[in-house]
Amino acid sequence: MDQLTLDFEAERPRLRAIAVRMLGSTAEADDVVQEAWLRLARTPDVDNTAAWLTTVVSRLCLDQLRSRKRVEAYDVPAAALPGTPVDPEADAVLADQVGAALLIVLETLSPAERVAFVLHDLFAVPFDDVAGVLGRSPAAVRQLASRGRRAVAGGDVEVERKTHHEVVDAFLAAARGGDLGRLLSLLAPDAIMQSDAAGIAMGTEPVYAGADAVAARFDGVRGAAPVTIDGWAAAAWVHHREVKVAFLFTVADGLITGVDLVADPEILARMDVVLAGNPARDAE
């Protein structure tokens, strides 16, 4: 067995555990892990095999979650269900799986929230690394994981979702109207807007730091359409039925604390973007 295979086999149990928690299906998890192995086998010069595989498996899971058209029955072995006797062999199998109750809660999360929560809270992946998986800033990922944590704890995020929607709608209305004072009133003093590499290549500054800079960037902007992304209010530039740029807002205590500008087509393809009740990609 060569070193690459040995490295992969050493990571397989952890990767499978991540995939089971994200997908709630052992069969899908095994398929994802196998696909990760195939990609590794044809990818030269991977510096950090464990981190690379974690990213690939997480993104494959994210794609699977996005593609689901309906809530499917969980493929959880009978031994995972409460009250079912567990023999030693079954217990070993279940060591890398998760209880049915948690899976049901995870299903209520958006794909991005689920990935952020599983990676950070269940597998202690640093926020900076999760940000690389999702193509968002560490601050945005921190909020995604926090939403997942509250849902798992039995909290209701609908109030937060409503507040988020109201703040973002007011901000976009102020931007279209050129109301600089209103824009500033909706931004935290230390608000920051960050662009990904694709956005920077389009001519956007990498960072707009502080409320003044962020407000000036949006003042008078009319082309960013209100949308929902993964069920939360956001904005997007849409051209010829295709989302070119997404603006993701982080809101805390009624104020916008951060904006992520995402223009990477691969990352955009993993977002559930809806404009005026229709898929944004179908909008003119």
UniProtKB/TrEMBL annotation:
Xref: Pfam families: Sigma70_r2, Sigma70_r4_2
Domain RNA polymerase sigma-70 region, first and last residues per copy: 8-70
Top-level taxon of origin: Bacteria
Residues covered by the RNA polymerase sigma factor 70 region 4 type domain: 105-151
Keywords linked to the UniProt accession: Sigma factor, Transcription, Transcription regulation
Family recorded in the similarity comment: Belongs to the sigma-70 factor family. ECF subfamily.
Protein known as: Sigma-70 family RNA polymerase sigma factor
